[in-house]
């Protein structure tokens, strides 16, 4: 296998890990002011992701760094092209990260509720924007012969990509609710479960709309594997929802996680061998061939990733193991 | 060209702001790790309290460093897409390696450290903060490896219309990196040491929690004094290295228009960039030669000759940075360094005589000195980055060739204003929180409000 193909897969894996982990993180952030009625409840909700959200966010940073190293043209085209969207995302992530750290460092309801709503917005906006971004990659955006994005911010918004954003957001919220059911005690856990059951219905509708519009607006289903993967995502989500109804919370979380994993896999599968589709001329799409780094850089990076990714997975898994118990007021640091 | 100007301002503002938090993260993490290690070794609760108190301040700073670092990573793609295309093959690798080797570790173990006081053994918990401290410094190494390529490109070949890597080990062995990295890490230790000293001095002046802040000040002092001495040594080596690697930067630092032998060291002067001359001022004859060649004679190349050489190689154009700002930034940095050495030396003297706490003036000087490492770090960074202008990668790509061609001035303007506003608010909030906890000292419970009935005092 060509190393550029290996890196296509690795970038896909990094995004999959990112959406799986930060997906529930974002969901928890959106649910924070909605589920948590008292200050202690909100502290518990934040405490559920407290030890891990920073590590989760690095999946995105690594995906960005990997794109820079392995596909510099994609890095350049994507971030200069989706300029204002990325700016919104960065501002959201800034206030979110600072909010998670700062909100409990000062008492006073105004201080805390301000940060709570900033965490809410800072989680909602990226979740939405990633859905918009991923669907845009597949649907195609105006990229010229020099690999430059020649559209505007509003060209990124279409019925299809907006459904993509909403579907991502709702699935992440559901995923976050499932996580909270696992991590909290009653009555919060019960409330999170009821929320999951409600949000789950809307998430399923949005998800099916996404699948249908993907069929209409993109060529994803031209690849059998991608199509199967996307249907598998729908299946995983349904199983998750049924498990949630049956109080099989662990399975519900695994199911929502698999739905995210299969969706991400389907999109990258549908993209391959392209990374960004040009809507102007298919020859101008960015592919593993025309957008990749030199063989030497790819080789070096492959060795590094081969050695380091398993280590990263091991200690991140370990950190989840340390904090595996349900969160109680006793363990709060934020 | 508006886009270029705005993109440059944006990069200047966001990276200078980011670099306000980085040095303290580098230095203070090591100090906290050392404090916690003493606690694990001796079982003395005082050092646990120290690790927790200084750790708390560290975390507030760390959070701001992390979120502003996010912007840095994506800004290359957003505003400098032509740079990313031209250099990605080389520049992307250290960034990706930073994420894989350092950033994952740092952010996973910071979570473990914050929340793990009761869940881990003492030794494991101390190991967590060591991992955070070392990976933060490793992060700095990768960033400087990338930056060093921009300053002194090595291990590349021009192919397929871009710079491609042909020797990764050359990238890691880049002499610029090995001059810059120790200087930066030591600058971080100075910042961390002075930070601990200044807050301790504040409390000693008020005779509050003396049993805690007396030993804290001592630890900060040892760190700051040792590191500021070494920062001078590494800085001196760097200047000597610049003479061969980036003579234009050195000439700009000294506002040396004409090649000279022996070359004088100018303390201050009035620079007229238009006429390319200096008027008046005070200088030490042969001083620059002494610095560069370790002998009172020896040639140092001037700006005019270097400009001509560059024109011969690269064609017409200006190849000199903005001389006055580089000249004065360097002097501010050096003056800040001297101030730091003087204050640290004075404190060490009084401390040995056991009279430091009776010298309110000295303690007040220490409090004021809190600002000084920040000034030194920012001006030092300015000299390094502005000194390579007009190049983004010296000799390979000029800044105006690097900017994103399709991003409008309006877009950059919006994000410039947006980031500046957000950063401004964060600065106020961050300084407020740091001030609040610094003044409070370690006795107050860290949770603003303990949960009712459960007696949850955080950090116990």
UniProtKB/TrEMBL annotation, chain A:
Domain of life: Bacteria
Signal peptide (from-to): none
Record key words, sorted: Cell membrane, Electron transport, Heme, Iron, Membrane, Metal-binding, Transmembrane, Transmembrane helix, Transport
Pfam families in the cross-refs: Cyt_bd_oxida_II
TM helices/strands, residue ranges: 6-36, 82-102, 114-138, 158-182, 194-217, 223-244, 251-272, 300-323
Topology in the lipid bilayer: Multi-pass membrane protein
Cellular location(s): Cell membrane
Family: Belongs to the cytochrome ubiquinol oxidase subunit 2 family.
Protein name per its UniProtKB record: Cytochrome d ubiquinol oxidase subunit II
From TrEMBL, chain B:
Keyword Transmembrane: yes
Keywords: Cell membrane, Electron transport, Heme, Iron, Membrane, Metal-binding, Transmembrane, Transmembrane helix, Transport
Pfam families cross-referenced by the UniProt entry: Cyt_bd_oxida_I
Topology term for the membrane: Multi-pass membrane protein
Superkingdom of the source species: Bacteria
Subcellular locations according to the entry: Cell membrane
Primary localization class, coarse: membrane
Membrane-crossing residue ranges in chain numbering: 20-41, 53-71, 91-115, 127-150, 185-205, 217-235, 328-351, 363-384, 412-434
Family: Belongs to the cytochrome ubiquinol oxidase subunit 1 family.
Protein name: Cytochrome ubiquinol oxidase subunit I
């Amino acid at each position: 296998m060509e190393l550029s193909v290996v890196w296509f897969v690795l970038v896909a894996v990094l995004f999959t890990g990112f959406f799986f982990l930060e997906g529930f993180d974002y969901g928890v952030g959106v649910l924070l002011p909605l589920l948590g009625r008292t200050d202690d409840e909100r502290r518990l909700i934040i405490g559920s992701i407290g030890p891990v959200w920073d590590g989760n966010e690095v999946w995105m940073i690594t995906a960005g760094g990997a794109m820079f190293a392995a596909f510099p043209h994609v890095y350049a085209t994507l971030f200069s092209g989706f300029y204002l969207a990325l700016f919104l995302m960065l501002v959201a992530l800034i206030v979110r990260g600072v909010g998670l750290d700062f909100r409990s460092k000062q008492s006073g309801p105004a201080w805390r509720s301000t940060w709570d709503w900033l965490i809410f917005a800072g989680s909602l906006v990226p979740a939405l924007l990633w859905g918009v971004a991923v669907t845009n990659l597949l649907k195609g955006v105006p990229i010229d012969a020099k690999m430059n994005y020649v559209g505007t911010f509003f060209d990124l918004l279409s019925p299809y990509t907006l459904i993509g954003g909403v579907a991502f957001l709702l699935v992440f919220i559901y995923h976050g609710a499932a996580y909270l059911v696992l991590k909290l005690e009653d009555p919060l856990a019960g409330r999170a479960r009821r929320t999951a059951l409600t949000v789950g219905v809307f998430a399923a509708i949005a998800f099916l709309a996404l699948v249908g519009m993907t069929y209409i607006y993109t060529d994803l289903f031209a690849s059998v594997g991608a199509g199967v993967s996307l249907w598998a995502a729908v299946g995983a989500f349904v199983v998750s929802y049924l498990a949630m109804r049956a109080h099989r919370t662990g399975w519900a979380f695994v199911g929502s996680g698999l739905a995210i994993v299969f969706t991400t896999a389907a999109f990258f599968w549908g993209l391959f061998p392209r990374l960004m589709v040009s809507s102007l001329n298919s020859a101008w799409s960015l592919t593993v061939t025309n957008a990749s780094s030199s063989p030497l850089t790819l080789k070096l990076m492959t060795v590094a990733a081969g050695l380091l990714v398993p280590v990263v997975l091991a200690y991140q898994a370990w950190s989840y193991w340390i904090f595996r118990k349900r969160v109680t007021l006793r363990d709060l640091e934020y | 060209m508006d886009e270029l100007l705005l993109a440059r301002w944006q990069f200047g503002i966001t990276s200078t702001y980011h670099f306000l938090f980085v040095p303290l993260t580098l230095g203070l993490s090591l100090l906290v790790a050392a404090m916690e290690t003493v606690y694990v070794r001796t079982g003395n609760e005082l050092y646990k309290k120290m690790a927790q108190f200084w750790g708390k301040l560290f975390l507030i700073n760390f959070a701001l460093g992390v979120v502003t670092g996010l912007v840095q990573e994506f800004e290359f793609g957003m505003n400098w897409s032509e740079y990313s295309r031209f250099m990605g093959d080389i520049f992307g690798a250290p960034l990706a390696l930073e994420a894989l080797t350092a950033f994952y570790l740092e952010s996973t173990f910071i979570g473990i450290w914050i929340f793990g006081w009761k869940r881990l053994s003492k030794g494991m918990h101390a190991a967590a903060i060591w991992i955070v401290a070392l990976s933060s410094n490793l992060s700095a190494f990768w960033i400087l490896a990338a930056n060093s390529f921009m300053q002194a490109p090595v291990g590349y070949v021009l192919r397929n219309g871009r710079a491609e890597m042909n020797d990764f080990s050359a990238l890691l062995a880049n002499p610029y990196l090995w001059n810059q990295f120790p200087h930066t890490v030591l600058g971080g230790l100075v910042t961390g040491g002075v930070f601990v000293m200044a807050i301790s001095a504040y409390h000693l002046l008020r005779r509050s929690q003396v049993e805690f802040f007396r030993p804290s000040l001592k630890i900060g002092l040892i760190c700051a004094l040792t590191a500021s001495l070494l920062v001078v040594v590494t800085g001196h080596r760097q200047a000597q290295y610049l003479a061969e690697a980036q003579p234009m930067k050195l000439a700009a630092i000294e506002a040396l228009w004409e090649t000279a032998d022996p070359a004088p060291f100018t303390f201050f002067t009035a620079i007229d960039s238009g006429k390319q001359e200096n008027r008046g001022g005070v200088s030490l004859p042969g001083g620059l030669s002494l610095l560069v060649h370790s002998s009172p004679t020896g040639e140092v190349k001037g700006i005019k000759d270097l400009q001509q050489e560059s024109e011969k190689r690269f064609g017409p154009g200006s190849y000199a940075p903005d001389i006055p700002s580089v000249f004065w930034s360097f002097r501010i940095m050096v003056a800040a360094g001297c101030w730091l050495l003087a204050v640290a030396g004075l404190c060490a003297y009084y401390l040995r005589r056991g009279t430091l706490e009776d010298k309110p003036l000295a303690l007040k000087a220490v409090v004021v000195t809190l600002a000084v490492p920040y000034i030194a770090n920012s001006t030092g960074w300015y000299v390094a980055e502005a000194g390579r202008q007009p190049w983004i990668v010296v000799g390979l790509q000029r800044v105006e060739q690097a900017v994103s061609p399709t991003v409008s001035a309006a877009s950059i303007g919006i994000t410039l204003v947006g980031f500046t506003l957000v950063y401004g608010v964060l600065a106020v909030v961050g300084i407020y929180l740091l001030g609040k906890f610094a003044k409070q000292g370690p006795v107050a419970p860290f949770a603003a409000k303990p949960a009712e009935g459960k007696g949850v005092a955080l950090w116990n």
